[in-house]
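Figure 2 data, in text form.
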Amino acid sequence: MRIVRRVGASPRERGSTTGQTCPDIFELSDGDFAVIGREATAELDSELPPDAARADYERIVVISRETLVRAKQDIPDA
């Protein structure tokens, strides 16, 4: 598995002055996506709806709205 491309605008394009420690989305060679965001599992785990579940090895990650909105055009429909 490897990163194939960034999905959406880079942190610098979204206004980060350092381009470091900012949310990001990447498409992987197997077709999955990797997300860099703020870890919020402890904060949001109890807020999950009844039909949602998280495995012990999964984490809830928060990215900014702008990060996802700017990535929308790069996310394939299928």
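Caption note: The chain has two helices and five strands.
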